[in-house]
Write a sequence for this structure.
């Protein structure tokens, strides 16, 4: 029982916290992301992937429906976020002594954990 409750907490917290970023993108758009993506030489449509990683994937994870797929999408989103926006911070510390990209790292590794562990008993897929 504790294992399934732990998976539920991990899944729901990861999903909700990532969804906040997606809601911001829905409200303010992805214009700046498009600029970053095209500036890196990638096609502009790649910027729309942020909606997959920050809106669709979190909803899948929260519901426990194809959570592993959602988790992989979030992990890939974090790879793009670090590679395109935070690459210079990978080997730096912030003013408080923490890793400069600790938030992105936490999202990435939590998503990997959900992908490896699965959604647990309290999910749509387990029904």
């Amino acid at each position: 029982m504790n294992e399934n409750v732990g998976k539920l907490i991990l899944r729901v917290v990861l999903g909700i916290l990532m969804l906040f970023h997606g809601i911001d993108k829905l409200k303010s758009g992805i214009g700046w992301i498009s600029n970053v993506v095209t500036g890196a030489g990638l096609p502009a449509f790649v910027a729309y992937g942020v909606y997959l990683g920050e809106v669709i994937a979190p909803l899948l994870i929260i519901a426990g429906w194809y959570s592993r797929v959602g988790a992989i999408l979030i992990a890939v989103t974090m790879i793009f976020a670090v590679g395109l926006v935070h690459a210079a911070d990978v080997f730096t510390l912030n003013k408080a002594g923490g890793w400069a990209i600790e938030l992105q790292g936490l999202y990435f590794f939590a998503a990997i954990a959900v992908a490896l562990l699965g959604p647990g008993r309290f999910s749509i897929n387990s029904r």
User: Anything to note?
Assistant: DSSP finds five helices and no strands in the chain.
